[in-house]
Amino acid sequence: MMIRRAAIQDLEQIMQIYARAVQYMHASGNPNQWVEGYPSRALIEEDIARGVSYVVDRDGVIEAVFSYIEGEDPTYRQIGQGMWRTNGSYGTVHRLASAGRLRGVAGICFSWCAEQAKMHGCSSLRADTHQDNRIMQHLLQKNGFVYCGVIHLANGAPRLAFERAAVAPEGVNPGMPQQKQKGDGRGYGIASLILGIVSVLLFCTCINWVTGILAIIFGIIQITKNKEHGLAIGGIITAAISMVLSVVLYLAMWFGMTNAGITYEDLLYDQYDDSYDSDGSDAWYDGDGNGSYDGGGNDGWYDDGGNDGWYDGGGNDGWYDGDGSGGYDYYNDPYDYFRDYYDVQEPGGNQFM
């Protein structure tokens, strides 16, 4: 396989390739780029006569055709919404089309043109395409071209302009921000970051922390460094595994509680609980044994047993009791601390009143 100048005897094959390219553009959502018979037979004959038409020849069969022209292109003199990356001489690729049989043939053509531009002292390689030609835009970016702005053809039609440096960076225009060429996967990075955060928030085991944090790190690297998006895809997979694990574990807990007859109410201050369980000797709001807010003996808060601390009915209590040296009780006692119903009736009772 080789790239050579097109000859007049190649014209029929070349026109068949261009006809196929027009059909493919229409089928892929780009019906407005090559219209009204463009590129015409006369134009291709002119390219051949000028020696700027080239073909990819594989054993006598033409796999692709393009025009490569060095020197100033009149339509590139003015560029809007941006600027060219270089100010030096350049080569231009026009009318690239493939027969559709050889994968990667566009990359072969671009590499050959860049090499020619470099050999002939050009600073860069330029090309343009229609805004609806998503396929060519992708191919250009994949092969090292950077979007620079919008140019207009001789008939006034707008085209997206791209440029690829052909020589060392000294030819680069310092006023043009350099766009990163690796990765093109910020969306993957954002997805990895978000899924990682969700995974951490759904924490169920230590594995979630590890996988979630890894996904966050991968996402940040992808967004800030614009690395190949395989790294971010790894983060997405890692976070997804973590989230699935969380869901499985939560479901297992739910089924386990259901089978054991434990309800949600059993988890918070149930009738008999000690610390979120369902037996006696409870700590809070229970109905039996050594707790508080319960009705058993020796309790701490609001119970009915003796020797209690607060709001109970036993003797020797501290507050709101019904007997002994407490306060707010129902009996007059000289040792009460706060006024009660009977303390005002006898001397030496309540300290307040």
From TrEMBL:
The keyword Repeat does not apply. The chain crosses the membrane at residues 188-221, 233-255. Keywords: Membrane, Transferase, Transmembrane, Transmembrane helix. Residues 1-169 form the N-acetyltransferase domain. It comes from the Bacteria. InterPro entries: Acyl_CoA_acyltransferase, GNAT_dom. Gene3D superfamilies: 3.40.630.30. GO terms for molecular function: acyltransferase activity, transferring groups other than amino-acyl groups. This is Putative acetyltransferase.
